[in-house]
Amino acid sequence: MATVRGCDLPDDLLYDVDNNIWYRENGDGTVTLGMTAVAAAMAGPLVAFTPKKVGRGVKAGKSCATVESGKWVGPAKIAFDAEVTEINEDLVGDPKMGASDPYGVGWLVKVKAEDWDGAKAGLVPGSEVAAPYEAKMAADEFAGCGELAA
Question: Which end of the chain is more exposed for a tag (fewer CB within 10 A), N or C?
Answer without folding.
Answer: C
